[in-house]
Design brief:
Number of helices of chain A: 1
Number of strands of chain B: 11
Number of domains of chain A: 1
Distance between the termini of chain B: 34 Å
Strand content of chain B: 15-25%
Order of helices and strands of chain A: EEEEEH
Structural class of chain B: alpha/beta
CATH superfamily of one domain in chain B: HypD, alpha/beta domain 2
Bound molecules: iron/sulfur cluster
Strand content of chain A: over 45%
Number of strands of chain A: 5
Strand order of the largest sheet of chain A: 3-2-1-4-5
CATH architecture of chain A: Roll
Distance between the termini of chain A: 36 Å
Largest interface: A-B, 35 and 52 residues
Shape of chain A: elongated
Oligomer: heterodimer
Number of helices of chain B: 18
Helix content of chain A: 10-25%
Chain lengths: 71, 365
């Protein structure tokens, strides 16, 4: 029920945006987040974006894990 | 996720990384009983057999983490009643959950007007298309799902639209469980609830109950990493809130959503199925929105005072993480996903349903 899925922003149109879920496109409501830019990743839950990150921020996680495993 | 992100997804499931984390966990050699409170976490743990990767002395139990499972019989009865004369719209997961005498699915085949929706925006659309009917959105879910209900209320829904509010809140429920004492050494906190509320609401629980906590994401490696972080805290006698899911959770959370929530809802004390009334762990509509409150708009008779019907006596144990599905005499015998007795078997995120579908891994341990 609380499942949310990441998708990439293709185009922003006011309160909604077209996003891409690995091939499948959908319109989602973006009024719960600061307006995203094309190419950003957004986390989608029941048709609404609930969080936005840039590609670089997504890659950051991978680095953090590597650091933790090095310790 | 497209292009580059596919690589990321691969990394999150990479066996080599998983095994490195497991080696670290083993090296700590720390016995612990850990609880998570999220149906999606249970699904990942069971589906990927993560329990079998962990050393024998680490037990991971599922707490009350499925909003469908903890919606009490009474509130299902309310929705069933309202569907007699009006349109009731709700998430598909709710349809098969048993009420006192019938589920919404049962009511639908008996002529109740019940519409399954993916997004609450669709409920508003149904109301606009049916101006001569009353449309009630049966709103369930935790902090992840409540902001969408708030967003709708703040955008002038039509007059023939109302909300049967069954939203619930996670931190007060954790407080309730920890106060009761459930014999756990650490908590895995739910990632997407935390996307909305941030990491800070858990700090109080760390201090009050000396409870180590880690917020985890939803890939197998997220969960293993969270367990490793938790085991380190337990080993070092620390009790902090740590965030494993940094890609989608921040300290302050989603402040736009939080603001919408506080404008539309106030905390209320209602029942959780299997747990009784939990103080301040539910949401109710603020007075300003009472025109859209189905409980104010309609005179809904109380069908049953029962906390839970006889048939699902063991569900309460499963919901609290005190019992495993396999210990229930009904599990797999009288109670299966096709013929569920209790709510934990109904929802795809119910602990019993997951145990049944992904089978043996849970049964063995
Ligand atoms: S197997 Fe069925 S009756 Fe037993 S605890 Fe699970 S849902 Fe309840």
């Amino acid at each position: 029920m609380c499942l949310a899925v990441p998708a990439q922003v293709i185009e922003v149109n006011g309160d909604t945006a077209t996003v891409d879920f690995g091939g499948v496109r959908r319109n989602v409501n973006i009024t719960l987040i600061d307006s995203p830019k094309n190419g950003d990743y957004v986390l989608i839950h029941v048709g609404y974006a609930i969080h936005r990150i840039s590609q670089e921020e997504a890659q950051e996680t991978l680095k953090i894990w590597e650091e933790m495993l090095k310790e | 996720m497209g292009g580059n992100a596919k690589g990321m997804k691969y990394f999150f499931r990479d066996n080599g990384t998983a095994l490195r984390i497991v080696e670290r966990i083993k090296a700590l050699d720390q016995p612990a009983r850990i609880m998570h409170v999220c149906g999606t976490h249970e699904q990942i743990i069971t589906k990927h057999g993560l329990r079998t990767l962990l050393p024998e002395n680490i037990e991971v139990v599922a707490g009350p983490g499925c909003p469908v499972c903890i919606t009490p019989v009474k509130e299902i009865d309310e929705a069933v009643y309202l569907s007699d004369k009006n349109i009731v719209a709700t998430y598909g997961d709710m349809l098969r959950v048993p009420g006192t005498s019938i589920s919404l699915a049962g009511k639908k085949s008996a002529g109740g007007d019940i519409r399954m929706i993916y997004s609450p925006a669709e409920a508003v659309e149904i109301a606009k298309k049916n101006p001569d009917r009353e449309v009630i959105f049966f709103a369930i879910g935790f902090e992840t799902t409540a902001p969408m209900t708030a967003q709708i209320l703040l955008n002038s829904p039509p007059e023939n639209f109302s909300i049967l509010c069954s939203h619930r809140l996670i931190p007060p429920a954790l407080d309730f469980l920890l106060k009761e004492g459930i014999g756990i050494d650490g908590l895995i906190d739910p990632g997407h609830v935390s996307t909305i509320i941030g990491t800070h609401p858990y700090e109080e629980l760390c201090n009050k109950y000396n409870m180590p906590q880690v917020i985890a994401g939803f890939e197998p490696i997220d969960v293993l990493m969270a367990i490793y972080m938790l085991m380190k805290q337990i080993r070092n006698h620390e009790a902090r809130i740590e965030n494993e899911y940094t890609r989608f959770v921040t300290y302050e959370g989603n402040t736009i959503a939080q603001e919408m929530l506080s404008k539309t809802f106030k905390a209320d004390s209602r029942e959780w199925r299997g747990l009784g009334v939990i103080p301040q762990a539910s949401l109710a509509l603020r007075k300003e929105f009472e025109n859209f409150d189905a409980r104010k708009k309609f005179d809904i008779p109380l069908q049953s005072d029962e906390t839970c019907d006889q048939a699902c006596f063991f569900c309460a144990n499963v919901i609290k993480g005190a019992g495993r599905p396999k210990d229930c005499p009904n599990f797999g015998e009288n109670c299966t996903p096709d013929k569920p007795i209790g709510a934990c078997m109904v929802s795809t995120e119910g602990t019993c349903s997951i145990a049944y579908r992904y089978g043996t891994i849970v049964n063995q341990r």
